[in-house]
Design brief:
single chain, 282 residues, alpha+beta, 6-stranded antiparallel beta barrel, 12 strands, 27% strand
């Protein structure tokens, strides 16, 4: 306490100066129109700039949630595009068909938003880690997607995290189809470019051309049909010459991947039990 009193006594003239300076400025701006208007304008400018900085900071903080919401919306919109495309192909005039098709595609799975916390793209067998695990309903063999296409399949889980085997893994093998056709094959990564994969087993009589859309076929319990995979970049012959091997330009840029969704299927336990029963009878 004595130190405080000594400090106040030592600098009492400075404190008195600041008080008198404040009073003089108040009187100057309060009773002089010109000086008052200058102060008012300057104060509003500074206040506006501070509010602008605050708004920018709050917007930046909210970007993560907005991006996750956009990922979910893009996935749903992709299903709507699929339903509308089938409606046009069938040339039917039943207005309820698209709604029924969309409902059937989305009825069998839910979505868990997750964030990629670890990733690699320059190895032969790449893996990525997401911040959702068993406590969030994530289980092995669940599909993982993002707003620009499929990502991969859940490989291992812990209570709070999960390891995902992405498309950019030599062991990945995902059933895909050419949109608007009945032709399907298996998507594999050959360890070359992180934006390209190969779709094999396409029959030679298939009418395939560059630019065609590749999507999930739905021939598994992992991904529903119609999820975007990429575009055909080049049509080549397979090594044995009996089928086509398509170079697919992937829609997902794994080097920039951050927000994803895990597709959770309520009927997955039933499907797995049936598969295990079939395997046990072999």
């Amino acid at each position: 306490m004595r130190d405080l009193l000594d400090f106040l006594k030592k600098y009492s003239y400075w404190f008195l100066f600041l008080v008198l300076e404040g009073i003089s400025l108040f009187l100057l701006f309060r009773f002089n129109l010109y000086q008052g208007s200058v102060w008012f304008t300057s104060a509003n400018t500074v206040s506006g700039q501070v509010l602008k900085w605050e708004s920018a900071a709050l917007s930046y903080v909210a970007l993560g949630k907005q991006n996750r919401d956009l990922v979910r919306e893009n996935i749903v919109l992709e299903q709507r595009v699929k339903a509308l495309s089938e409606l046009l192909d069938r040339a039917e005039h039943d207005s309820t068909y698209a709604e029924k098709r969309q409902a059937s595609l989305l009825a069998d799975f839910g979505m868990v938003n997750a964030e990629v916390v670890n990733n690699s793209v320059n190895r032969r067998n790449n893996y990525l880690t997401i911040d959702k695990g068993e406590l969030d309903g994530v289980r092995p063999e669940m599909g993982v997607v993002c707003g620009t296409g499929i990502v991969g399949i859940v490989y291992l889980t812990t209570p709070h995290y999960a390891i995902v085997m992405p498309v950019l893994n030599g062991k990945s093998n995902i059933s895909c189809a050419l949109r608007g056709t009945d032709y399907f094959g298996y998507l594999r990564w050959e360890g070359t470019h992180p934006l390209h994969a190969s779709l094999g087993d396409i029959p030679r009589h298939a009418h395939v051309k560059e630019g065609m859309t590749v999507e999930t076929s739905g021939f598994s319990a992992v991904f529903p049909a119609g999820l975007f995979v990429g575009k055909v970049h080049k049509v080549e012959n397979s090594d044995d010459g009996l089928s086509y091997k398509l170079d697919v330009n992937l829609g997902t840029d794994f080097s920039r991947l951050r927000d994803v969704c895990v597709l959770t299927m309520p009927n997955r336990v039933e499907i797995d039990s049936l598969q295990q029963k079939v395997e046990s009878e072999k």
